[in-house]
Amino acid sequence: MNRTAAFLLGPELVWLLLLATAGIFVSANQPLTGAGRGTLVLMKLFLPSVGVMLAFVPLFWAPGSQSWFLGRIVFASLVGVVGLVYFLSRAASYDDSRNVGLILGFVGFVFIGWTVLALMGGVATLFLLSHWPFLLVLTWILVLFALYMIALWIIWTFNIGSGKALGG
């Protein structure tokens, strides 16, 4: 892969693709229904963490300094988490009194994404500063995270049907 293509296939592209995916789901859920709002809340729960983890994938083909690329990942993820959660929060809004928890939900979902970013960024920084090989560790973190997110999605899906997932 040449240097320009590797530079363009960075964490910013990951966040733009996630935002486009969220836009497709939002447009499919218009006009907003109760089930559509539940889907958007589910996306606000999972997509920030998934986006942070996917933003680390370009480290596999990053040209040049990985510490500079890690800075790109952190900055793109800080902005991407806020942008994605804000977009999904506005899409799930009824614009009336039913939005009581919208602001707190926004803060909570951003906090979830930033916590995953802090954990992954801390591990990556530790490995890069100590000159240990990080890509094998990143591979296993991504595999374990994917299994964890699949398990959470299955649990959440079965609980939504019973009315327990949203406090019912």
From TrEMBL:
It comes from the Bacteria. The chain crosses the membrane at residues 6-28, 40-62, 68-88, 100-128, 134-156. Keywords: Membrane, Transmembrane, Transmembrane helix. This is Uncharacterized protein.
